[in-house]
Design brief:
alpha+beta; five-stranded mixed beta sheet; 20 strands; about 25% helix
Length: about 550
């Protein structure tokens, strides 16, 4: 193994002698790059955001914004990082000794009053820069003048009638896209308590496209740094990144007490807030066997280490329920690191992905040195943060059957619209033919010690007409599912009430969409697919063109 090194703002530096648990944030600040700030140490405020060069979806390399407070610096061995200080100097070559000119994002933030106290500004700058360099960003012919950014969307985040989250889209020319195609969801993980967000939004909507001589834009056309095998040892701590899945499984068989880390969005909080330290950390985020997205005739298989942002961009709405889930899953900064494998591996009862995957009848593929086994997700969880996964096993992938159900909805009940933890999450996948519910699958989170399937509510729907009377009866059954508890996020009674409301809202959406279709297309039969508010996905799901 060679010495662990990281490239920051174009300059390579050794990672040693910091401890293996040291975050990228602390590493940078100790080297004088104090633009990167610590606000929450949990990945909720975005003050620590930096850019990392990652394998691209549309081009060889993407500049991706991540939370530096959550990622161990050893995890970026061999990788490239750009901070807010490096944006100007990296933008284009200048004369020796010349003062760097501001990056276009920095310039717009300055002239439009997007910075007041300045504490959050570097993080906003890096998140904005990642969106500035997004290869498929294009002008939006129908920008929304009232589009909200960051925590501005917290106000009015729930419907007055039922408490469920408002709808929003993340791809294409949606209501959160400016005239320049800037997607404000890129800033959903950045908080500001000074500006009221309007000048930040104005700055985001004012940036143009990168000029031809922009070095970071040109860097996208080159291959990203390859993952390197890492064995970083300092004191009693060890950080390992095996080169292959076989090596990782061998390591875990020998050391079942090792902590497995992918995106670090959960473990980073444990390290920062609860001061947990692991004698041995095994990183699986760059294992090629866990980084594939494959489409077969009867299922889609998603590698456990593919980030949620990558899944969203690769699938492009082909699994409509996931397309509904992703915008409501934490923030773009978190989704740039978080993985399905990590969300399932932690076993949290309030994770957002499990309810959706349960409704999709997904299964997990568990890998061990002596082979693999496939377990239906409905049978995976056995207790609070416990599962059937044996010591030494890894989640290799998640399999989702095809075709997906045509009527889908994902409801997240939380205090804020973005970047928050669920009080309740409910996912619906329905097959409705000739007005009859032929199949119903419902996944729930936040109402039991584990994510659960709502079997009784499914039975109350199947074989019955999709009408108000059926829905009302099933909603009462759904409200009685699980064993909700009182805590600081919500009372048990509120959680139960919200379960019923999610089904009622799903029904209201489908009937509204059906009526709208009938009114605009007389004589044309409609389906209940509408699922979901302003349905941005189509009823036809294809599997072509998904890259691995």
């Amino acid at each position: 193994m060679v010495e662990a090194r990281i490239t920051v703002n174009g300059k390579e530096a050794p990672i040693a002698p910091v401890a293996p648990h040291t975050t990228v944030l602390d590493f940078l600040r100790e080297r004088g790059l104090t633009g990167t700030k610590e606000g929450c140490a949990e990945g909720e405020c975005g003050a620590c955001a930096v850019l990392v060069a990652r394998p691209g979806v549309d081009r060889p390399t993407d500049w991706v914004a991540v939370n530096a407070c959550l990622i161990p610096v050893a995890a970026l061995d061999g990788q490239e990082v750009v901070t807010s200080e490096g944006l100007a100097t990296a933008r284009r070559p200048g004369a020796p000794g010349a003062r760097p000119e501001l990056h276009p994002v920095q310039e717009e933030m300055a002239v439009r009053g997007g910075s007041q106290c300045g504490y959050c500004t570097p993080g906003f700058i890096c998140s904005m820069a990642a969106e500035y360099y997004r290869p498929d960003r294009c002008p939006n012919p129908n920008p929304d003048p009232e589009a909200e950014v960051g925590a501005e969307a917290e106000a009015g985040a729930t419907d007055a009638e039922d408490g469920t989250a408002d709808d929003h889209t993340t791809s294409g020319a949606g209501p959160q896209h400016g005239p320049n195609g800037f997607d404000l969801h890129a800033l959903s993980g950045n908080l500001c308590r000074c500006t009221g967000y309007r000048p930040i939004r104005d700055a985001a909507f004012a940036v143009g496209t990168p000029p031809d001589d922009d070095l970071l834009a040109r860097r996208r056309e080159q291959a990203p740094p390859p993952p390197v095998a890492t064995a970083y040892v300092q004191g009693d701590g060890v950080f390992l990144r095996p080169a292959t899945l076989a090596e990782a499984l061998h390591e875990l068989r020998e050391r079942p007490d090792a902590v497995v880390v992918a995106g670090g969005t959960d473990w980073g909080v444990e390290v920062n807030i609860r001061s947990r330290r692991a004698g041995r950390v095994v990183a699986v985020d760059r294992l090629p066997e866990l980084r594939e997205v494959r489409v077969a005739a009867d299922h889609i298989e998603i590698g456990a280490a593919v980030t949620l942002t990558e899944i969203e961009r690769r699938l492009e709405g082909r699994v409509p329920l996931l397309a509904e889930l992703f915008p409501q899953f934490a923030s773009r900064l978190i989704r740039n690191s978080a993985t399905l494998g990590g969300n399932l591996g932690t076993g949290s009862p309030i994770g957002d992905a499990p309810p959706a995957l349960l409704a999709l009848e997904a299964s997990v593929v568990l890998a061990a040195p002596d082979g693999e086994r496939e377990v239906p997700l409905a049978d995976y969880f056995t207790g609070y943060r416990q599962s059937v996964r044996r010591p030494g096993e890894l989640i290799r992938s998640v399999r989702i059957p095809l075709p997906p159900a045509p009527v889908v909805a994902f409801h997240k009940i939380a205090k804020r619209r973005f970047d928050d933890i669920s009080s309740v999450a409910a996912a619906f996948a329905l097959v409705i033919e000739d007005g009859i519910v032929r199949k119903a699958r419902i996944g729930l989170g936040g109402v039991a010690a584990t994510p659960i399937r709502a079997f009784a509510a499914e039975t109350a729907l199947e074989g019955r007409p999709w009408v108000a009377e059926t829905v009302e009866a099933a909603a009462r059954v759904l409200s009685a599912q699980g064993t909700p508890m009182d805590d600081h996020r919500a009372s048990a009674a509120y959680r139960s009430a919200m379960l019923g409301q999610t089904l009622r809202k799903t029904y209201a959406r489908t009937t509204t969409a059906t009526a709208t279709t009938a009114a605009t297309t007389p004589g044309t039969a409609t389906t209940a697919r509408a699922a979901t508010a302003a349905t941005t996905t189509t009823n036809t799901t294809t599997t072509e063109g998904v890259s691995s």
